[in-house]
Amino acid sequence: MATVTLLRPPLLVPTWSDSGPMTPPIGPAYLAASLRQAGHTARIIDGLGENPFQVTSLFGNKVTAIGLRSEEIVERIEPDTDLIGVSCMFSQDWPEIRRMIALARRRFPDIPIVAGGEHITAVPDFTLESTPEVDVCAIGEGEETIVDLANAIDQRASFEAIGGVVLRADGGTRSTGLRARIRNLDDIPLPAWDLVPLENYLDHGLGYGVDRGRSMPMLATRGCPYECTFCSNPEMWTTRWIARDPAKVLDEIQLYRDKYGATNFDFYDLTAIVKRSWIIDFTKMILDRHMQFTWQLPSGTRSEAIDGEVSRLLYTSGCRNMSYAPESGSPEVLKRIKKVVKLDRLEASVRGAVRNKLNVKLNIIMGFPNESRKELRETVRFLFRMGLAGVHDMSISIFSPYPGSELYHDLRKAGKIPELSDEYFLGLGAYKDFSHPVSFTEGLSPRLLNVYRVLGFLVFYGTQYATRPWRVARLLQNMLQHRQESRLDKSLQDLAHRIRNRRTGSAKSAGAAAA
Ligand code: B12
Ligand code: SF4
Q1: Fewer CB within 10 Å: C terminus or N terminus of the chain?
Q2: Does residue 228 line the site of ligand 2, with CB under 6 A?
Q3: CA torsion, ordered 119, 140, 266, 497, to nearest 10 deg
Q4: In sequence order, what E strands does 328-400 have?
Q5: Which ligand does the CA of 97 lie closest to?
């Protein structure tokens, strides 16, 4: 049987952004579990989790790496490895991951290297053409592909007949095409968390959501049925949304409560709430089983299935924080980006969630191509209404054209992204970085875009706190007592750590504020 080492890079964050989510590597943990189930030996080198308190400045201090340096990750690969797998989720990380791959190749000249993940799925040909050190790219969902690759190594067979890969062939590349998605998610073995330095996350309150105790990542669904033009979901997961059996999700939660003392569960789903009946079954089952834990939906979810009854059930079953992803307050923009959302219905859903005591965050994007000033002002007015409604948090990202998305293809065709250079990849990190603003909007300078963004923040938080002054007191109290309830609590406390620990180089200071 084969021995596979999976590399998770360090966390790479734009140095001047407030974002740097320190999350356990759920993708590699899933892959490792499938490898083990098939009889192979799996290892994970979690670049972030192995040393979450080390900070390294990269690319002229444009990027901060948190965790092991790429050199240290490669040093830890055991010599008996038969296959090296590298995970690349975020395109902005590619320049450093490519360097890590080159280091691995230098140390292991004859061991096959496979790269996979969301970024690789979007640009497999570019990856193979620009990075001779990569032997094969895995596209889409990875569990079956990694097992087939390990089987092929074991049987000394070629990779050519394996589904879901892109290989070099005849001086170019050849794709075997995306695999059919795994239909029964409950057949996938649970993530191999024992191969990850999990305590480093659990003990330090690191994770995706607000710090509400020992937090474990969860995945209840995969995929999303929508096709928003700024999102790479359709090319990666297709438009098939598949949910697990709610009972199995709760069995997993119970396992982590017993095994790791977990008290909070962050759902990493792309769009957890699509089907009303699923979320009702799930929440009612928590209540029927008398389970006591908190859970959060930090990825921006859709609003269609969340009416008053659903948000009440969410709260009573322990959900405390959830994010909606309206993206814009302009109906024209929403139509153009194919968000398929009705703002009045979304607003009603949000108001219901706030009334039912959920801590609500909104995800906004500004700076879509062709977005007008009038449309940006509509978004600011929407934020005013949401502040008035008592929504707790929001984030405004500046639009970045991620590979694999429809807008990326459009901008490439129009020559707005002339080549896939390091500058372009690093520029994708500008979505939250005030120091290097980028604008893809005709007639709107990066500076002006930043002005709209600051205006949006001021209007939203100003309205919210002017109408609910007790929330300011609560914010200060939480700050003093190191308690977190909202994303703003989390961001401010992480910022305080960052300032306090700047001289000591603590990773928590360098970027633990959540995205
Ligand atoms: C949860 C999430 C986050 C969380 C946590 C991410 C994490 N796990 O560390 C946080 C908050 C950190 C986050 C932040 C951001 N995110 Co995000 N996020 C997601 C989301 C919804 C789920 C990721 C996930 O955990 N999936 C579940 C696991 C099981 O899947 P997976 O890791 O992809 O692994 C599978 C396959 O990819 C493959 N695979 C992966 N690695 C490998 C390796 C090998 C060798 C093989 C064979 C296979 C393989 O097999 C795995 C199992 O099937 C994805 C969308 C999505 N569905 O993936 C977006 C997504 C990854 N995020 C995205 C973006 C843009 C961001 C942000 C830039 C913020 C923003 N504006 O939204 C920030 C950047 C963070 C940073 N570095 O600074 C984009 C990335 C696009 C890109 N090309 O860069 C995505 C794809 C959303 C989208 N469709 O646009 N995100
Ligand atoms: S942005 Fe959200 S709703 Fe739109 S396709 Fe991506 S995951 Fe689905």
Answers
A1: N
A2: yes
A3: -20
A4: 359-366, 393-398
A5: 1
Closest Cα partner for 34 from 114, 183, 146, 182?
146
Q: How many CB atoms lie within 10 A of CB 473?
A: 10
What is the torsional sign of CA 279, 285, 288, 290?
Answer: negative
List C-alpha distances in Å: 403 to 118, 172, 316, 417: 9, 20, 39, 11
Q: Is the pTM for the entire model greater than 0.90?
A: yes
Q: What is the DSSP string of 107-120?
A: H-TTS-EEEESHHH
231 lines ligand 2 (CB under 6 A): yes
Q: Which helix (H) or strand (E) holds 413?
A: helix 406-413
Residue type, 442: E
426 Cα–ligand 1 center, Å: 17
List pLDDT tens digits, range 216-266: 999 999 999 999 999 999 999 999 999 999 999 999 999 999 999 999 999
Q: Are 458 and 430 in contact (CB under 8 A)?
A: no
Shortest-distance ligand to the CA of residue 91? 1
284: which 2 tokens? Answer: 């009612």
